[in-house]
């Protein structure tokens, strides 16, 4: 990273990944074009879990090349008076793995549902069972990540 002062610590990056609601998955798509897709996810222990259908462009791309990146934007406020942005984001790089172990699939989709539906925990087991046959779970094993915040945000936090 060019501006090391703006670099976020690993702990701050992990907090952003834990609290974020939507991330953007980037894969190597058809004909060498990057393909990005916003997606809900859950993060734990250096891994990002996401779900998808058992077929589709995203899954095909992962089968062809497991290297992916995943971006989460924590803050993105325009500071018009200074012609800048108060931003904070993380980009994680790693290898995507299509899960085949049913126990890991069930536990990861349950954790994903619990993250997004904390008020409907009682219904999650039945929903997981209902959708399990058409579900594909992907785990991204993070190899490295980087986080950055805007210069003005850094100044604001120092004050």
- Rg result: 17 Å
Which range does the strand content fall in?
35-45%
- Number of β-strand runs: 7
Order of helices and strands: HEEEEHEEHHEH
Structural class: alpha+beta
Key descriptive features of the protein:
42% strand, globular, alpha+beta, 159 residues
Question: What does this molecule look like?
Answer:
The mean pLDDT is 90. A hairpin with a 4-residue loop joins strand 5 and strand 6. This protein has 159 residues and is an alpha+beta fold. The longest helix is centred in the last third of the chain and has 15 residues. It is built from five helices and seven strands, in the order H-E-E-E-E-H-E-E-H-H-E-H. A seven-stranded antiparallel beta sheet has the order 2-1-5-6-7-4-3, sandwiched between helices.
Write the layout of secondary structure elements.
Elements: H1 10-19, E1 22-28, E2 34-40, E3 42-44, E4 47-53, H2 57-64, E5 67-79, E6 84-98, H3 102-116, H4 124-131, E7 135-149, H5 151-158
Antiparallel strand pairs: 1-2, 1-5, 3-4, 4-7, 5-6, 6-7
Quick recap:
By secondary structure, the protein is α+β, with helices and mostly antiparallel strands. The protein is 31% helix and 42% strand.
């Amino acid at each position: 990273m060019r501006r090391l002062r703006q670099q976020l610590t690993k702990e701050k990056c992990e907090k952003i990944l834990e609290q974020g609601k939507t991330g953007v998955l980037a894969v190597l798509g058809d004909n060498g074009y990057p393909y990005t897709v916003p997606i809900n996810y859950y993060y734990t222990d250096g891994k990002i879990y996401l779900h998808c259908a058992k077929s589709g462009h995203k899954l095909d791309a992962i089968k062809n090349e497991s290297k992916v990146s995943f971006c989460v934007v924590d803050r993105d406020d325009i500071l018009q008076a200074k012609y800048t942005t108060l931003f904070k984001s993380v980009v994680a790089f790693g290898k995507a793995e299509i899960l085949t172990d049913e126990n890991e699939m069930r536990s990861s989709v349950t954790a994903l549902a619990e993250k997004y539906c904390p008020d409907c925990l009682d219904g999650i087991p039945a929903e997981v069972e209902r959708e399990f046959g058409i579900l594909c779970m992907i785990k991204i094993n993070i190899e490295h990540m980087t986080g950055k915040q805007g210069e003005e945000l850094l100044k604001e936090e120092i004050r």
